[in-house]
Design brief:
This protein is mostly helical. It is 75% helix and 0% strand. The longest helix is centred in the first third of the chain and has 17 residues. The radius of gyration is 14 Å and the shape is globular.
């Protein structure tokens, strides 16, 4: 994202996730605020991913999408990934939004969008 306030908000969200984990009260409001910046910058993928994210957190009181991996995953690895912290997966998703010029970030955001949509 280009907006300095949006970048600052991303940093705050990541810092709060480190400190308090998934605190739904502030987290959902922060994600909604970040979504307004994405709307202003007209980035439909980010707008959609953020909406799916806060709706998912509202429904589940957590972030239940496993962190994305680089390689194909077998069953044993999948169990390990699912056991990984919801905070780590959410931090990764939020961090992706910081640099949208990176094609891998866009690809991973699309994957998160699809996983959230299917959940």
């Amino acid at each position: 994202m280009e907006n300095k306030k949006a970048i600052k908000l991303i940093d705050e969200i990541l810092e709060n996730l480190d400190k308090t984990g998934i605190n739904t009260e502030t987290l959902i409001d922060d994600i909604k605020a970040l979504r307004t910046y994405a709307l202003e910058e007209q980035i439909p993928l980010v707008v959609k991913v953020l909406r799916y994210t806060y709706e998912h957190i509202e429904e589940n009181n957590s972030f239940l999408i496993p962190i994305l991996g680089d390689e194909p995953v077998d069953e044993e690895d999948m169990e390990e990934k699912e056991a990984a912290s919801p905070v780590e997966s959410l931090k990764y998703l939020i961090a992706l939004i910081k640099n949208l010029k990176n094609k891998v970030n866009i690809s991973d955001l699309k994957e998160y969008r699809d996983l959230l949509k299917e959940y």
